[in-house]
């Protein structure tokens, strides 16, 4: 005789009556809710007017969003569904079901305040004993914008379409003014066709204005660099009495280049090379990661695909961290961040730079691997001191930490959590969203580290 458990969907309680009994005591959802309960949210709660229908508490909505990012649920519609379908999300939402408009509006409205909570979470990690500043690895990763590269419009193509549309507008106006309408194609409504083209012309004019403004900024920047190079050549010629060798620098061209582009969906994003080859519409997300804990301690999002100009701004963000979190002693970075100016900037802030000065061979010989450390230089400059440091066994071992610090964090965020594209558009908004993503990662990591300690 078969022995099966009975199926009764009409019973009074399918779940325990208390939401606290729905999850095991050690669960990420509980941890997220507990940490958020201890955060100072007065910057959010103080902005509610207190009239009309009662609002969802910011703690509930913030917990829902952060737990979603920590478990790979990002969109507001998916978060709304999860409050019905997932036991963990039901727990975080206290068995309430805010709709997707409420969730999306909260995320947009309080993005700056959420960004400011990043440091508060680091303070919690410090109190838990899982965050120790010391050695920090800096790296960047390309994350797709909420826009397609096919929505990008170059200056040359914009000018071509603009000329075509103006010719079509003139033709339509001629047809409208003609007394004989016999040649009008069937179904053509001249006012509608004119309105459509006028709208497109306005969009193209705005796009061209953005490209021209960027070209003006670029020319000013390149002109300053050109003047500096020419001044250096002239100074060297005056000092040596000889004409400097090498090719004479050419002054930068004014105005937009034919290939200059703007994306019509998210004009703040840029076409960038991506891993594996090719180009996509992206942002460059930066993160400084503590080597001992893999917690992200500083973030930024920039529009430049190159990392070389991002080191000094990130040093500034590290310097702004509260003193009770500790002090950064060393900074690890790959060759993309190397320049003498960056090395000097690290030394000026009391941080020891460990930055690759070139590409390393993948399979060094035994003689190279076990060679004795070279003698240190006398009275070295910061660059000479770092070059020597990278040639020592201790320096090589420290630099090797880089690959197992920042890169795994990016890999988990992209491949495990599934965050490969920003939901929001515009530089300030994606900066806030990147803070939200990394804060969710930190909470997930803190939960794991708390189980180890």
Keywords:
single chain; about 450 residues; alpha/beta; Nucleotidyltransferase, domain 5; 3 domains; 6-stranded mixed β-sheet; two-stranded antiparallel ribbon; 8 strands; about 50% helix; flat
Your description of this structure?
The protein is of the alpha/beta class and about 450 residues long. The chain folds into 3 domains: about 20-110, no CATH class; about 130-150 and about 270-425, Nucleotidyltransferase, domain 5, CATH 3.30.420; about 150-175 and about 185-265, no CATH class. The chain is built from 16 helices and 8 strands. It has helices at about 30-35, 40-45, 60-70, 75-85, 85-90, 100-110, 110-130, 155-175, 190-240, 310-320, 340-350, 365-370, 380-390, 395-400, 405-415, 425-450, and strands at about 135-145, 150-155, 260-265, 270-275, 280-290, 295-300, 330-335, 350-355. Strands 1, 4, 5, 6, 7 and 8 form a 6-stranded mixed β-sheet that branches. A hairpin with a 5-residue loop joins strand 5 and strand 6 (about 295-300). Helix 3 (about 60-70) crosses helix 16 (about 425-450) and helix 4 packs across helix 6. The protein is flat and about 95 Å long. About 30% of the residues are buried. The mean pLDDT is about 85.
SSE order and pairing:
Layout: H1 28-37, H2 42-45, H3 58-70, H4 76-85, H5 87-92, H6 100-109, H7 111-128, E1 135-144, E2 152-154, H8 155-177, H9 190-240, E3 261-263, E4 270-273, E5 279-290, E6 296-302, H10 311-319, E7 330-333, H11 340-348, E8 352-355, H12 366-369, H13 382-391, H14 393-400, H15 406-416, H16 427-452
Parallel strand pairs: 1-7, 7-8
Antiparallel strand pairs: 1-5, 2-3, 4-5, 5-6
């Amino acid at each position: 005789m078969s022995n099966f458990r009975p199926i009764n969907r009409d019973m009074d309680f399918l779940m325990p009556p208390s939401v606290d009994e729905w999850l095991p005591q050690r669960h990420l959802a509980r941890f997220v809710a507990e940490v958020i309960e201890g955060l100072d949210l007065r910057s959010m709660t103080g902005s509610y007017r207190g009239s009309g229908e009662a609002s969802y508490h910011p703690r509930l909505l913030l917990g829902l969003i952060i737990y979603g990012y920590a478990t790979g649920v990002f969109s507001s519609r998916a978060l709304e569904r999860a409050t019905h379908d997932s036991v963990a999300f039901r727990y975080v939402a206290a068995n309430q079901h805010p709709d997707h408009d409420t969730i999306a509006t909260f995320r947009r409205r309080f993005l700056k305040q959420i960004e400011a909570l990043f440091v508060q979470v680091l303070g919690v990690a410090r109190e838990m004993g899982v965050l120790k500043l010391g050695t920090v690895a800096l790296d960047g990763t390309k994350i797709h914008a909420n826009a397609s590269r096919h929505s990008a419009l170059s200056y040359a193509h914009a000018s071509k379409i603009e000329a075509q549309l103006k010719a079509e507008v003139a033709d339509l106006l001629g047809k409208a003014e003609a007394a004989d309408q016999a040649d009008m194609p069937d179904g053509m409504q001249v006012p509608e066709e004119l309105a459509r083209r006028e709208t497109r012309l306005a969009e193209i004019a705005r796009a061209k204005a953005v490209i021209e403004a960027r070209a003006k900024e670029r020319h000013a920047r390149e002109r300053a660099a050109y003047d500096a190079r020419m001044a250096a050549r002239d100074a060297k010629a005056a000092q040596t009495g000889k004409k400097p060798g090498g090719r004479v620098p050419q002054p930068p061209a004014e105005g937009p280049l034919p290939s200059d582009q703007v994306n019509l969906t998210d004009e703040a994003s840029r076409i960038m090379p991506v891993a594996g080859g090719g180009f996509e519409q992206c942002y460059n997300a930066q993160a400084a990661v503590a080597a001992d804990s893999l917690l992200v301690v500083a973030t930024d999002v920039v529009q430049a695909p190159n990392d070389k100009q991002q080191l000094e701004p990130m040093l500034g963000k590290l310097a702004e961290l509260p003193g009770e979190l500790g002090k950064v002693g060393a900074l690890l970075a790959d060759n993309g961040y190397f320049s003498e100016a960056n090395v000097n900037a690290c030394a000026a802030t009391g941080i020891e730079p460990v930055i690759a000065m070139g590409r390393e061979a993948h399979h060094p010989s035994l003689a190279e691997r076990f060679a004795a450390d070279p003698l240190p230089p006398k009275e070295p400059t910061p660059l000479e001191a770092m070059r020597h440091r990278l040639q020592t066994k201790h320096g090589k071992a420290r630099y090797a930490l880089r690959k197992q610090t920042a890169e795994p964090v990016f890999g988990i965020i992209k491949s495990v959590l599934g965050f490969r594209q920003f939901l929001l558009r515009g530089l300030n908004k994606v900066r806030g969203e990147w803070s939200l993503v990394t804060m969710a990662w930190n909470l997930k990591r803190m939960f794991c580290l708390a189980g180890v300690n």
